[in-house]
Amino acid sequence: MKSAVVLLSGGLDSATVLAIAAHEGFNCFALSFDYGQRHQRELLAAAEIARSMAVARHIILKLDLRQFGGSALTADIPVPKDRNTGDLAEHIPVTYVPARNTIFLACALGWAEVLQAEAIFVGVNALDYSGYPDCRPEFISAFENLANVATKAATADHRPIRLRAPLIQMGKDEIISAGLKLGVDYSKTFSCYDPPDESHSCGHCDACQLRLAAFAKLHQTDPIAYV
After folding, report:
1. Are 201 and 192 in contact (CB under 8 A)?
2. Could you write out the DSSP letters of every residue in 165-198?
3. CB-CB contact of 65 with 35 (8 Å)
4. Residue 58 forms beta bridges with which residues?
5. Would you call 116 helix, strand, or coil by DSSP?
6. Judging by beta carbons within 10 Å of its beta carbon (0-12, 13-18, 19+), is residue 19 exposed, middle or buried?
7. What are phi and psi of 62, to 5 degrees?
8. Separation CA 133–CA 83 (nearest Å)
9. Domain extents for the chain?
10. Given this model, what pLDDT does residue 88 score?
11. By CB distance 3.0 to 4.6 Å, which of 4, 23, 127, 198 could disulfide with 119?
């Protein structure tokens, strides 16, 4: 059975990507990161999603990016709230974690090579996103090229590793719609950057606004709790 490493943050995008990989017949190995982010709630969500979708194995890898800081998610910098959704991609916000997807994908690549996996799946999106440079098609293409010149699997064993980003050209509402067709339970997901407690999302950060707007566009109620 073909295998894939799936980056699983606990948010709706990564849950949808996991469902897509499973639907395509991949034996899925989920990889999450405890990287010093502001809260642990998303990791609880990732663990629940991994259990409910019966992944082959779920690893939560600890990386302390708070040692570097430089982001509202890894340092004592306020998370932006109530920004105009039309302006979210105009500038790179302070919630951007420097080189985060590069770091995460490098770890995923190492595990994929050990597993002899055919693919790595990642839930990046270039349409409804917050202006992050490591969510663009150019980045995905460049990293896939790197993967296939940097690994024994590709260079010696002639087993190239594909970097799959099936959501990259989809709107957030399209992502949710696709996930619902695959049976994704979005009540298990968590997207908020700055939750007031373990049970609720703030409803005001960029991630919450994008999520709420997408469910509203579909004339559906977001199944998670907000303050």
Report:
1. yes
2. -TTTT--HHHHHHHHHHTT--GGG----SS-SSS
3. yes
4. 30
5. coil
6. buried
7. -90, 125
8. 19
9. 3-217
10. 64
11. 4
pTM: 0.95
Alpha-carbon distance of 113 to 117, in angstroms, equals: 6
* Six token digits for residue 194: 């700055």
Write the CB contacts of 156 (distance below 8 Å, at least 6 apart in sequence).
Answer: none
Residue 178 half-sphere exposure, CB side, CA atoms within 13 Å? 21
**Furthest CA-CA distance within the chain:** 54
Q: What angle do CA 101, 39, 216 make, to 5 degrees?
A: 75
Tell me how many helices (H) and strands (E) the chain has: 7, 5
Judge whether residue 118 has pLDDT over 70.
yes
The rounded distance, in Å, linking the Cα atoms of 7 and 101 is 10
User: Which residue bears the tokens 């306020």?
Assistant: 78
Angle between helices 206-217 and 172-181 (to 10 degrees): 60
| Nearest-angstrom CA–CA distance, 216 and 81 | 19
Can you list the alpha helix ranges (DSSP code H) found in the chain? 12-23, 41-52, 100-115, 137-150, 152-155, 172-181, 206-217
pLDDT at 86: 66
Q: Which fold has domain 3-217?
A: Rossmann fold (3.40.50)
Task: Quote the pLDDT of residue 85.
Answer: 65
Residue 7 has pLDDT above 70, yes or no: yes
pLDDT digits (tens, 9 = 90+) for 42-58: 999 999 999 999 999 99
Q: How far is CA 151 from CA 155, 163, 199, in A?
A: 6, 14, 42
